[in-house]
Amino acid sequence: MRLPAQARQTALDLIDFIDASPSPWHAVASAEVRLQAGGFTRLEEGARWQLAAGGRHYVVRGGASLIAFVLGSQPLAEAGFRIVGAHTDSPGLRLKPRPALGDDGLMRLAVEVYGGPILATFADRDLSLAGRVVLRTASGPRAHLLRFEQPLLRLPNLAIHMNREVNEQGLKFDKQTELPLILGLLDVEEGADAFLRSMLADAVKGEAADLLSWELAAYDVQPGSLWGADEAFIASRQLDNLASCHAALAALTASAAPTASCVAALFDHEEVGSESAAGAGGSLITDVLARIGLALGLDDEDRRRARAHSFFVSADMAHAYQPNFPAAYEPDHKLRVNGGPVIKSHAGQRYATEAETAARFMDLCQQAEVPCQHYAHRGNLGCGSTIGPIVAARLGIASVDVGSPMWAMHSARESAGARDPAYMIAALAALYAS
Question: What is the pLDDT of residues 71-86, one digit of tens each?
Answer without folding.
Answer: 999 999 999 999 999 9
